[in-house]
Amino acid sequence: MKQSFDVHQIKNLIAISLKGFSQVMLMENALSGGIILLGITIHSPLLGLMALISSIVGTLAGHYVGADKLAIRQGLYGFNSLLCGIAVMLFLQNDWRWLIAPIVAISASVLMFHLSKYLARWKIPTLTFPFVVVTWLGLLATYSIKGLHINPEFVASSPAKWNLPIEGTPNFFLSLIKGVGEVFIIDSLWAGLLILIALFVAGWRFGVYAVGGTFISWLTALWLGVDAELLNLGLYNYNAVLTMIAVGLLFDDTRRFPIVGIFAAATTVPISAGLDLLLVPSGLPTLTSPFIISTWLFLMIRKAIPKSL
């Protein structure tokens, strides 16, 4: 009986950890999480393994610090941790990554626990803020530690540091596929395609929000004169995808959502450009910070507007 119970616990932990993958895209669906993990693993088996380990470690850390049991079951203590694990594997360039990634994953989970209690007072979602903070602090610390080496290719999520040709033809579908992949800091058509499929598997609204967010940010970036190569890499789309989904789920007035969603997704483009120029001197990527800023901004605006209007 004991062995059977332990097997059940392990299966439950894996299912919750897979939900962590879907929670990156603001969904709670273990099947979608498994599809996302498959996409990451096809891109890089080692990256997929570390992402799963990080999600498991973050989930366990949430349990041991006394986090809300429902939040744990929903996978909310796995998604920031797995993003941190992916960041460590991509941004560092030595064997220490396998030891550092789980530690960073635990740090993100603990920060999630404390921040969620603080932000709950204002009914503000934590989103990927722990991932951004832990990754930024880790990168800044790495620059001062001789034993750790930054991967020179980590600038994949930092558009202004790319030395790309100005020529190019904007491709919406390429931006869409690459954009959803860049949410996980991955430049891969296969991973992006599977992540997009995972969105539709969880519910048609998630897929439509992703397509709509990409289209709006794509048009906005074109209007602002963003380089076509950067646009096709999805670097100006992935924050809009997350923002569109977040606003769609958190905005309680369906009549106003289309207008609010359009503005929220569009604002991620100038926010991304501005933050990138601000962070480049420090050697930091923007990650999902534009998504956090835009979503929080529009949620605060919503709270300030009377529902009768």
Q: Can you tell me about this structure?
A:
69% of the residues lie in helices and 0% in strands. The chain is globular, with a radius of gyration of 19 Å. The chain is mainly α. The chain has two domains: 1-150, Ammonium transporter fold; 156-309, Ammonium transporter fold, CATH 1.10.3430.10. The N and C termini lie far apart (59 Å). It contains 14 helices and no strands. The longest helix is centred in the middle third of the chain and has 23 residues, at 97-119. Residues 155-166 have low confidence and may be disordered. 50% of the residues are buried. Helix 3 (45-64) packs across helix 6, helix 5 (79-91) runs parallel beside helix 7 (129-142) and helix 10 (204-224) crosses helix 13 (257-279).
β-strand number:
0
Question: In what range is the share of β-strand residues?
Answer: under 5%
- The total tally of domains equals 2
- What is the level-2 CATH architecture name of the largest domain? Orthogonal Bundle
Multimeric status of the protein? single chain
CATH superfamily descriptor of the largest domain? Ammonium transporter AmtB like domains
Mean pLDDT: 87
What composes the largest sheet?
none
Named CATH topology of the largest domain: Ammonium transporter fold
The level 1 CATH classification of the largest domain is: Mainly Alpha
User: What is the overall number of helices?
Assistant: 14
